[in-house]
Amino acid sequence: xxxxxxxxxxxxxxxxxxxxxxxxxxxxxxxxxxxxxxxxxxxxxxxxxxxxxxxxxxxxxxxxxxxxxxxxxxxxxxxxxxxxxxxxxxxxxxxxxxxxxxxxxxxxxxxxxxxxxxxxxxxxxxxxxxxxxxxxxxxxxxxxxxxxxxxxxxxxxxxxxxxxxxxxxxxxxxxxxxxxxxxxxxxxxxxxxxxxxxxxxxxxxxxxxxxxxxxxxxxxxxxxxxxxxxxxxxxxxxxxxxxx
Amino acid sequence: xxxxxxxxxxxxxxxxxxxxxxxxxxxxxxxxxxxxxxxxxxxxxxxxxxxxxxxxxxxxxxxxxxxxxxxxxxxxxxxxxxxxxxxxxxxxxxxxxxxxxxxxxxxxxxxxxxxxxxxxxxxxxxxxxxxxxxxxxxxxxxxxxxxxxxxxxxxxxxxxxxxxxxxxxxxxxxxxxxxxxxxxxxxxxxxxxxxxxxxxxxxxxxxxxxxxxxxxxxxxxxxxxxxxxxxxxxxxxxxxxxxxxxxxxxxxxxxxxxxxxxxxxxxxxxxxxxxxxxxxxxxxxxxxxxxxxxxxxxxxxxxxxxxxxxxxxxxxxxxxxxxxxxxxxxxxxxxxxxxxxxxxxxxxxxxxxxxxxxxxxxxxxxxxxxxxxxxxxxxxxxxxxxxxxxxxxxxxxxxxxxxxxxxxxxxxxxxxxxxxxxxxxxxxxxxxxxxxxxxxxxxxxxxxxxxxxxxxxxxxxxxxxxxxxxxxxxxxxxxxxxxxxxxxxxxxxxxxxxxxxxxxxxxxxxxxxxxxxxxxxxxxxxxxxxxxxxxxxxxxxxxxxxx
Lengths: 244, 547
Prior knowledge:
The complex is a heterodimer of chains A (about 240) and B (about 550). Chain A is built from seven helices and five strands. Chain A has about 240 residues and is α+β, with helices and mostly antiparallel strands. In chain A, a hairpin with a 4-residue loop joins strand 1 (about 170-175) and strand 2. Chain A is elongated. By secondary structure, chain B is mainly beta. The chains are: A alpha+beta (about 240), B mainly beta (about 550). At the A-B interface, helix 2 and strand 4 of A face strand 10, helix 2, strand 14 and helix 3 of B.
């Protein structure tokens, strides 16, 4: 009975009451998008799935919100939220669910796939966190992971150690210091470069009168990846090839 | 007699050495993190006359305002939840510049938008971001000077929420991610250039000392992210930092062993990033009992011998007194009433009868996942000799479940629901302690969890605020309430004080939010409907004719 009542109320509210949905949004932000569960705006969070754009049946939203979802961390809220707040948050989630999936502000992570073993090994090496900063992912983004500084390496094949960077230049500071850089932007107000002298690359912004950028540099890709053995670099190739 | 006077005077001067004066230069005030000011223009005799001097609205309201403002030469440097930084004129509240870090709206881990402050050094204002980057700004203009991404926030499931720590020519930055499948770390950068100087992994790798305390591959994603700000001791060139809980938080079955250096205080050499000593407060943590809160440095006689101490509160409801030259435990004492996760702790720190969460069973565990206190900081007054800490009496129903680590994703291994303690409603208190003996001198009780930091001054005042929006002053000697002001939103940040043009200002963030704030709503859902969000800085001073 109570479920039916809530259903009706939620339907009515989601159709016409912006204020109620706004109240629901506040409840959602406080109680649901805590960072440990769902994400903001109905996006996926650390421990709970995306709600936006799911087109979930209203009955399911009411049931899950009120009673929780057994076997998951989702608690039932009917005992801890006052009824007006419960209704409001249901109305808000119903709206998110019926709306576009693109309101999600956190990109859904790639689903866990079963990769062929040689692709998985290559990926593990590319993003190997145990190497600290000395890993491919510190400069390259693949599969929506890693930091995008260097060129796109999707589908790369060839000699990783022998890659020649045509883009590297040298920053000569007026103080006398010189270091290898990747030029990002240069205009009348600012020179912006990635300082490549060590990992991690540092995005540095300088005033034009502080620095000269000259072509060529002593930087090599081989020095940046010295941490990897030949066998490991060869093992990374099947992963890159698979991302084509 | 003269000699005695000299001794007294020099003791008093020494006591003020670690007090802030006109400025509030570092996160904890000074190197010792006392959050204590030598200013006494505002004092127990005139605090009733305190009035607002100005209010600064940040315009960035999600998750409230959790920062410690930094004050240098009368200019306030303030960060907000979404990594905006303001420079504000201290006497007027007028903004001088703003910097907005270009966070990708998607660019954050699951810990929510929150930021607890900046560091100011060598003409730069330094900030950690929601996408796990570190940014340095020109102190005069707010222009970006350097920026470095520590690691893709999606891979570590982490971000940077705490204020960076200045240690000589380096700036050391934490990671917030100890509830993710992540191996926590500290990173030290060259202040001038942003170049990485060292990375300290909280969890030792294979072959390193301490790695034998982890079963199998569990070390790779075992947590420990040290998510608050540490303390730097220039005399010993050591950085003290409290580390995060082991993960998965509530289920330690996959990581048999003590799990070093999680839930520990570590002393790290500032030049090399190597561990000099450690003290693990909760071996094989299975309750989410981080040690991440401030390591406060105090020099005091113990049994007649002057010792260099750390006083440190753990989420478990126990505080620890350590010798900071070697990590030796001198005392452990409980600071909350409700403790059910164990039958207690011996004075030498041994846990008696562990009561761990079980798979498939629900247990009431006190303190709950919010801890016997939250991160909001303690204070120490050399005038009273008291260590003051907030405390919260609350519990959680906890159920462990089996979970497989998936790099960068939530890795709690269980679930928790906030609950009132057995036999009574949740409440909160501020307590004054003799820090060496762990003896309570006075207590001040409130209904709702106190989630704002404490500040003491040479005016013998203690300032803090509550979830209902009251910023208030207690007599630091007695705990009597002397003054309060309604700021319009709950307090979750850290008050500071400074002096400009001869006038003392007390400044507090006001702005309710955060995960722990959600815990208060869970326990008092009806009352919490009246807790309003916000994000403003309030400055108080005595009227011009009083000072």
